Amino acid sequence: MIEVPSDEIFRDLVRKAMSELSTDHMAELKDVTILVADWPTELQAEKIKLRGDQLLLGLYEGIPRTLRSGYESGIMADTITLFKAPLVTISRDEADLYQQIKQTVWHEIAHYFGISHAEMDKRKNQS
Predict the structure, then answer these.
(1) Do the Cβ atoms of 2 and 95 come closer than 8 Å?
(2) Model confidence pLDDT, tens digit, residues 31-90
(3) How far is residue 78's CA from residue 60's CA, in Å, rounded to a whole number?
(4) Measuring CA to CA, which residue among 104, 112, 78 is closest to residue 10?
(5) DSSP H/E element including 61
(6) In the chain, what are the domain boundaries?
(7) Please, what is the end-to-end C-alpha distance for the chain in angstroms?
(8) Beta-sheet strand order (sheet of 32-37)
(9) 7-126 — its CATH code?
(10) 36: which residues sit within 8 A by CB, 6+ positions away?
């Protein structure tokens, strides 16, 4: 495990990861807030039925674009939360942490676009 980076350094890594995403995808990413938290809240853990031995690296909360009707006025903005402590826990060094952040950001944005875990695995295996 690596030394825990400051919040500022961690956020810089998140910004760098976001800047490396496809500009096509970023242009379509509307009204999504990216948050950083140390750990998931109790409510977040309950919502996804997180077991005590599992680490949650990130979480998309919102209505995927594929399920939107266009009449969602008054709903909360979509959020993607990256969980710093679990990401640091699984990382060997800062370069690995950056790759974990980048992969997690991509994963959660894929959920925003309505891509399932099965579809993500399929796409990963094709590349």
Answers:
(1) no
(2) 889 999 999 999 999 999 998 889 999 999 998 888 777 666 656 789 999 999 999 999
(3) 7
(4) 104
(5) strand 58-61
(6) 7-126
(7) 29
(8) 32-37, 78-83, 58-61
(9) 3.30.2010.20
(10) 7, 10, 11, 14, 81, 82, 83, 84
DSSP-assigned beta bridge partners for residue 59:
81
Cα–Cα distance between 66 and 115 in angstroms, integer? Answer: 9
Give the closest residue to 4 by CA, choosing from 91, 74, 75, 64.
91
Residue 49's SS3 state is coil
- The confidence band for 1, taking pLDDT boundaries of 50, 70 and 90, is low
* Cα-Cα-Cα-Cα dihedral sign, residues 40, 10, 88, 82: positive
Q: Which two tokens stand for residue 38?
A: 């140390």
Q: Regarding predicted confidence, which is higher, 99 or 72?
A: 99
Strand partners, 63: none
Query: Position 79: which residue type?
Result: T
The two three-digit tokens of residue 74, written as one number: 């008054």
